[in-house]
């Protein structure tokens, strides 16, 4: 059992890496995509719309396979599995985050921008001190839902052979002819999701307290 838990823990570290790097790159990229989605330049808006439709309209597992294998078959170039996983997760989740950001930005009344301009505030000051805090509060529930989904989706990395938690559980289950490793992996995922949920609950409570 100790050896099994050690393997699971090692596998979960990979899941945490995928989770952390995806958020690190997808959150800012999602904002850029959201601005492109709201752009007045038609070609930019059209291209961003196509990107979002593809990312949201096809399974992440298919995107993983495409990102890993397509460069080799098309250009004769290959790269490591972990890099393919991060690229796939980032471009997928950036599309979802973009739509969340867009809904939050469009929920802000345009009068607030006009009032800030009348008061002499710069665009940067208006955005970071007046608009962004409101947007963040509006999108927090949806953002929390996507981040929790991301925790579970990290298990898909095993599709292209990345040694994460679920893959470790499957290998152990095959060796021991037991489903126990699968259940233990489920407990690991539950704990990770619980911690993420707890974090967002604390953030929401803090925001409500300082209202």
From TrEMBL:
It is found in: Cell inner membrane; Cell membrane. Residues 8-200 form the ABC transmembrane type-1 domain. Pfam families: BPD_transp_1. The keyword Ribosomal protein does not apply. GO terms for cellular component: ATP-binding cassette (ABC) transporter complex. GO terms for molecular function: transmembrane transporter activity. The chain crosses the membrane at residues 12-34, 46-70, 82-103, 124-144, 177-196. InterPro entries: AA_ABC_transptr_permease_3TM, ArtM/GltK/GlnP/TcyL/YhdX-like, MetI-like, MetI-like_sf. It is a multi-pass membrane protein. Keywords: Amino-acid transport, Cell membrane, Membrane, Transmembrane, Transmembrane helix, Transport. Coiled coil: none annotated. It comes from the Bacteria. GO terms for biological process: amino acid transport. NCBIfam families: HEQRo_perm_3TM. Belongs to the binding-protein-dependent transport system permease family. HisMQ subfamily. PANTHER family: L-CYSTINE TRANSPORT SYSTEM PERMEASE PROTEIN TCYL, MEMBRANE COMPONENT OF AMINO ACID ABC TRANSPORTER. This is Amino acid ABC transporter permease. It comes from Bullifex porci.
């Amino acid at each position: 059992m100790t050896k099994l838990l050690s393997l699971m823990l090692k596998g979960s570290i990979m899941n945490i890496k995928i989770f952390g790097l995806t958020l690190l790159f997808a959150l800012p990229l999602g904002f850029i995509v959201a601005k492109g989605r709201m752009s007045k330049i038609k070609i930019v808006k059209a291209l961003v719309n196509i990107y979002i439709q593809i990312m949201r309209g096809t399974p992440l597992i298919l995107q993983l396979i495409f990102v890993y294998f397509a460069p080799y078959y098309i250009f004769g170039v290959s790269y490591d599995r972990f890099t393919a996983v991060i690229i796939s997760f980032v471009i997928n989740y950036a599309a979802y985050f973009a739509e969340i950001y867009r809904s939050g930005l469009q929920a802000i009344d345009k009068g607030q921008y006009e009032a800030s301009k009348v008061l002499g505030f710069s665009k940067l000051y208006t955005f970071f001190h007046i608009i962004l805090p409101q947007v963040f509060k509006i999108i927090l529930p949806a953002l929390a839902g996507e981040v929790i989904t991301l925790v579970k989706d990290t298990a898909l990395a095993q599709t292209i052979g990345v040694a994460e938690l679920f893959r470790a559980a499957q290998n152990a289950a095959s060796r021991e002819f037991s489903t126990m490793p699968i259940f233990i992996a489920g407990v690991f995922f539950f704990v990770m999701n619980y911690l993420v949920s707890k974090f967002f609950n604390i953030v929401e409570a803090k925001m409500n307290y300082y209202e």
